[in-house]
């Protein structure tokens, strides 16, 4: 099959399949067009090192600050504001994914924290799962299109509404089509197969009802959230001793997400920053001490940020870290700073 972006006319009997393939391409599911064959068929997540020197504009076409945080149904406004406002790196867009969000006006607090520099461009919410995109105050000059969608997997009510599923924002900013997906997958170490299925379900369904088959495919897709993959096959006290000795890098071989990606089950063609920070879950709330409850859970990197780029975009990772100073949840936030630059001049839409 040829490049789908060159197809403008289809017979009526082929229309639905055309739309189906284009939508899958939009989320990076197929290997035609957007997915380069050598990336799509490569098993495993590519580990990307950090270049601490950020070549912010004019050397980059776009810089993204991406943050994910499971709030555990709690709200500490100071933590929330510190997380987004205290940033020692310049960025164009702030992409913030939140899970287990309490019934509070989080959006208003975020806008107040960023009032001097950024405005809200779009948000997608589904009960306790939120996704926000903020841009500079002159963003109207660069924003061409933005769409939101959501996919519910399952969930329950209650005070913190622990909804499972994903919300997505598709945006064209500065001529760069992008897709951001914030998700919260099923918990517990034994549910690895269920998480794989949920990931695939989101890919198959997100933007399916709002899909424009003639829209340009994304140049970058970013997944962020509480993916809930755990460290397995290791006893909790042994894991904690390694962490205490700053040897937690040895635990990545026991990380379910990396194992399942290596098997070709999830995140084909995606990249992730090399994990150098400590596992982000589970902490005693109000501290940096790992779980002291009767469950004594094995610390795990449940909170992740992964990305995939088109062949004419170079993505440079300038940070990938946890925010250990945040104590109001049993999760630590994770932040990535990604700068994008075209390898060739993009075509201008007519």
UniProtKB/TrEMBL annotation:
Q: Name one GO cellular component term.
A: plasma membrane
> Known SMART domains for this protein?
IPPc
Known InterPro entries for this protein? Endo/exonu/phosph_ase_sf, IP5, IPPc
One GO MF annotation is: phosphatidylinositol-3,4,5-trisphosphate 5-phosphatase activity
* GO process terms (BP): phosphatidylinositol dephosphorylation; response to abscisic acid; response to auxin; response to jasmonic acid; response to salt stress
Q: Which domain of life is it from?
A: Eukaryota
| Residue ranges constituting the Inositol polyphosphate-related phosphatase domain according to the UniProt record | 60-346
Recorded family membership: Belongs to the inositol polyphosphate 5-phosphatase family.
Protein name, please? Inositol polyphosphate-related phosphatase domain-containing protein
Organism equals Rubus argutus
């Amino acid at each position: 099959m040829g490049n789908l972006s060159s197809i403008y006319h289809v017979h009526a009997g082929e229309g639905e399949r055309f739309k189906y393939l284009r939508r899958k391409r939009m989320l990076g599911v197929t290997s035609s067009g957007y997915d380069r064959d050598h990336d799509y068929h490569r098993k495993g997540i590519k580990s990307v090192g950090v270049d601490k020197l950020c070549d912010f504009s004019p050397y980059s076409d776009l810089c993204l600050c991406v943050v994910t945080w499971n709030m555990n149904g709690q709200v500490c406004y100071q933590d929330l504001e510190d997380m987004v406002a205290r940033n020692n790196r310049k960025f164009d867009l702030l992409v913030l994914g939140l899970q287990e969000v309490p019934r509070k006006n989080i959006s208003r607090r975020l806008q107040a924290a960023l009032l001097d520099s950024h405005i809200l461009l779009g948000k997608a919410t589904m009960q306790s799962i939120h996704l926000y995109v903020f841009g500079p105050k002159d963003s109207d000059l660069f924003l061409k299109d933005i769409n939101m969608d959501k996919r519910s997997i399952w969930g329950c009510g209650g005070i913190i509404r622990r909804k499972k599923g994903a919300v997505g924002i598709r945006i064209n900013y500065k001529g760069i089509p992008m897709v951001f997906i914030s998700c919260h997958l099923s918990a517990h170490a034994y549910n690895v197969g269920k998480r794989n299925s949920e990931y695939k379900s989101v890919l198959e369904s997100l933007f399916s009802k709002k899909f424009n088959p003639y829209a340009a495919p994304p140049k970058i897709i970013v997944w962020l959230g509480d993916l809930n993959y755990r460290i397995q096959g290791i006893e909790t006290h042994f894991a904690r001793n390694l962490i205490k000795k700053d040897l937690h890098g040895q635990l990545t071989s026991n990380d379910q997400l990396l194992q399942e990606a290596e098997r070709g089950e999830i995140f084909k063609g995606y990249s992730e920053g090399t994990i150098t920070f400590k596992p982000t879950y589970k902490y005693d709330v109000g501290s940096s001490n790992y779980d002291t409850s009767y469950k004594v859970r094995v610390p795990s990197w449940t909170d992740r940020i992964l990305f995939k780029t088109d062949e004419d975009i170079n993505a440079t990772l300038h940070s990938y870290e946890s925010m250990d100073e945040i104590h109001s949840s049993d999760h630590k936030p994770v932040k990535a700073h990604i700068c994008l630059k075209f390898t060739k001049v993009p075509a201008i839409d007519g």
